[in-house]
Amino acid sequence: MQIFGRLSQEQIVFGLAMLLCLAFAAALPGFLTTNNLLNLVRSVSILGILGVAMGLVVIGRGIDLSLVALMAVSVAWTLHLVAGGMPLLQALAIGLAFSLVTGAISGWLVAYVEIPAIFATLAMGTLIYGFGRYFLFGLDVVYMPEAAQALLWYGQGTLFGIPVPIYMFAGVCLGAYLFLRYAKSGRYLRAVGDNLLAARITGIPARPIIVLQYVLSALIGYTAGIVTAASVASMNTRVAISTYVYDVILVVVLGGIGLSGGKGGIRNVIVGTLLIGVLLNGMTIMDIQYTVQSVIKGIILLTAIVIDTILNPRDEQTAQQGDI
Amino acid sequence: MRLLKTSIVAATLALTAGSALAQGIDDPTREPYYSSFQGKRVAYVPVAMGFDLTEGWAIGLKEALEPLGVTFDIRDPNWSTDAGAQAITSLIAEKPDVIVVHNPDVQSYARLLKKAEEAGIYVVQVNMRSSYSTDAFIGADYVGMGEQIGERLVEKCSPANGGSGKVAITQGVLTAAASVYQMQGIDNVLSKHPEIQLVSNQAADWDATKAKNIAATVIQQHPDLCAITGFWDVMDVGTAAAIKESGKDVYLLTQGGGNKMACDGLNNGTYSEVVVYFVPGQARDMATMIKQMLQLKQAPGTTKTTLFTPLTFLTKENMTPSSCWSLPGQN
């Protein structure tokens, strides 16, 4: 127990993913092939990109429940504008601007109006979805028009035999890692997440940093949205009201970024994403029924969390602050 | 003289006939026809607005009913079964004359629909039926459609015809009428054809991204996969993307309401074949049933009519410019 006690949740989840991988590799012919592994990572790369966005916010002791809604609406609007005859680049710029401004509004609500992040972004998510569906475009699924075919490469193309979404995931991870590690604001972000009051006393501009979290999340979300739209040649705005955003939170928390903020990094997101990817891929290969898949997914996730709770009991700080 | 007489007679006849024509005869069915619709109210509860099927039905019903003085209301639960049940409950209290329901699954609304009929409201179900039959159902015969799809798969993929015999199915939501009845139909056929191997049967929640991930994995595992049949063209955009990325030649048989997007998809090779239940036709059938019920004035629930929509199997070869329809503003 002592040796295990030093394992972090990240290592536990990584171990679990490896264990599953080995089990699948032994039991399922065709699991451990290059193509299948590429396919496995590709299928969760969008989830991973969103996980990075959510991870940044959670490290800053916030949470962004409007992430998926904002992604769906801003990208759907972009496609809608292109279908209406606007040049692609202009439409992309407008969509991105919409996304960033909305992210800044969420951040402002959290940082300056001081509404708890969970309520501010929950309300914003509903508002964004409703606003988009009513004012920006009428249809539930917006198709990628001919004029936007250039984007398809980001979702369906390959480079040196590796699908482009994987590069996008890797690029976003690298960017976020460098930001957290080397950028001044990245370090501030972690400090604000770890202890807001102490950060403020030391002179860190806490409120602007909180706004920055949500703007970054909107930016990465928009990237994820473009990859989503490109990979299936359409944007399904229904994801905004689905439970997808909880899958994203799951990836983050499962990987070991604590909801109490200040802990964890991009590696945790990658590990969480991989575990989900291995699970989904293996179960699809085994042709397990959809409802049974949910049961298995739930059990494995709970197992990971229980192991973590036993090995890493809660410390004084989490006990005082609570998880969310 | 004779000629003069004849022409006078002819002229008189012509004149009288003319005056009779000018006066006209009143059609005795007009008044009761129009008055039976005055001030009536039809409420429409789809699973959600904003996609081709439900928008198409709404437009068709509106065009057919509103000129007759019928008020047409849309209650949009936006994919929430709870909100839909609430909409129907509040409609029962409001007592419109007809409720048009598009069921998200076979169970959820069953009791409410019975209550509505008992409260004196006609209930028309469209395309996805509830386990409770009401005054009218208009939609595809999903069991029959499943059987036809099963036969198509056998025809395309049977080793006797040069196929590998491997097929995959992507359902929508497992409990939706479109899924359960159709699976029954497909099973009826495939159980008689052991040479056809069903390598994957998964649900994708009507979502293109999920459909894509499932298809990608299945093709990966079975590179000699012969065909995939999906239960909705909007979702199968994702299946098609997976097939395209794999570079394999997989036959994609999908289905939908025959929106222009389906024809575009056939044209550019996204789909291989689409089974179409023509939405404007369904809207017209619904409007006809509603008109009949409002004229006959029988108590709701006394008769049960089913109108199965004729199906067309569209391919690039047999489609014509009029095979598909478009929504207003759709280019």
Automatic annotation (TrEMBL), chain B:
It is found in: Cell envelope. The keyword Signal applies. It comes from the Bacteria. Residues 1-22 form the signal peptide. Pfam families: Peripla_BP_4. Residues 44-296 form the Periplasmic binding protein domain. CDD domains: PBP1_ABC_sugar_binding-like. Transmembrane segments: none annotated. Keywords: Signal. SUPFAM superfamilies: Periplasmic binding protein-like I. Belongs to the bacterial solute-binding protein 2 family. PANTHER family: D-ALLOSE-BINDING PERIPLASMIC PROTEIN-RELATED. This is Sugar ABC transporter substrate-binding protein. It comes from Aquibium pacificus.
